Amino acid sequence: MDKRPAATLDAKHVSTNPLEQIRGARIAHLIESDGPGGAERMLASLATELQAAGCRNLVIVPANGEGWLASELAGTGVAVEYLKLDRPVSLSCARWLEAAFRRYGITIAQSHEFAMAVYGAWACWRVGIGHVITMHGSHYYRGRLRRRLALRLAVALSEQVVAVSKQLANQMSRDLWVRPARIITIPNGVRFRPAERSTLREELRLAVGDPLLVAIGNLYPVKGHRNLLDALGLLADRHPRAHVAIAGRGDAADALLARARELGLADRVSLLGLRADVPGLLMAADIFVLPSRSEGLPLALLEAMFAGCAIVATDVGEVRSVLADGEAGVVVPPENPVALAGALDRLLSNPTEARRLAAHARRRAQAEYDVSRMAARYAALYRVVLDRCSPANARSLDHSTTRG
Questions:
Q1: CA 115 → CA 29, 119, 202, distances in Å?
Q2: Which residue would you say has higher pLDDT here, 392 or 309?
Q3: What pLDDT, on a 0 to 100 scale, did the predictor assign at position 12?
Q4: Is residue 3 part of a domain?
Q5: 271 and 218 in one domain?
Q6: Do the bridges between strand 79-83 and strand 287-290 make them parallel or antiparallel, or are there none, so unpaired?
Q7: In a domain, 163, yes or no
Q8: For residues 329 and 304, what is the distance between their CA atoms, to the nearest angstrom?
Q9: 364/374 same-domain check
Q10: pTM for this one?
Q11: Strand ranges in 54-115 using DSSP code E only, listed in sequence order
Q12: Do 304 and 319 fall within a single domain?
């Protein structure tokens, strides 16, 4: 069933400015959720970057969403349409997508995560345009055979599958019975603007010298925040003034607060809720902690690197690679509070080492994980897909670029 050749990015498509090669392309971005999560933030950054480079972008989000993406894209020129996804299998949704692609003259579509990968592949096949799937994780499909089969079919109908980490690419190849060459890795990138000042320490009423550990991520069990609280409990004697602040929202909030009380840490754990001032939170942190049990390539980790934070993170997804095998941050096994506590103690007790790791992290982020690099990598991929699926559209882009 998997007969399509994989897209290859040869020298022609990875020139000094791949974005120039797709100026004028009409790109649809599909996603099934509309909250301020990692996949949504990545999509917003990518569409904004492509729009500024001269592409025309359409973002399709659920009609019953929160409105976060539309708000984030306001003023960028990116169009937003709303899809009513009212049941797991809906031919009307697929037909609506097909009509929207025709109405906007879309030349290539990119779908994020499971549901839109399936619907997007069907609609693109019907319209006759190229389709790219980007997967940010495996938890939406991995545990259910029916979903694996549906995603496998979507992959067969699509020109390329992108994973945000090499580990995820390998896992998808195994789970979906797809040859590895059909899945490429494009790391996420972020646009980071450092904060001019931070008020977090004052907000938490911390004294000068009180260690502050900051974690950023929605409050779900997969993010491993309970393990962070357990690690803080293990550090209680050696670092009695250490404080944990977690920014995010989710169903695990009450359970985390209850665990903090059980450990006698109620006055040393703060749940900050959803925050828009992430650079300010990172500026206040002595250590950024990523205690996740599973990840692809978390944007919060990249933001912490850009902010020049000392980092302790679990060895999940692409984390070890991003942190250069421990040269840009301390990497510990997931779901291991003892190891996490040991790493935190190591950096809290050795500020010189913490500063060295933080400086390395910042340099690495600036070199590898800026949003412009991510956009250029996707632009090179789009051009390959356009050349294969829509030669006439690709030639028109060549003429547009020449005139420009």
A1: 13, 6, 43
A2: 309
A3: 46
A4: no
A5: yes
A6: unpaired
A7: yes
A8: 10
A9: no
A10: 0.83
A11: 56-62, 79-83, 108-112
A12: yes
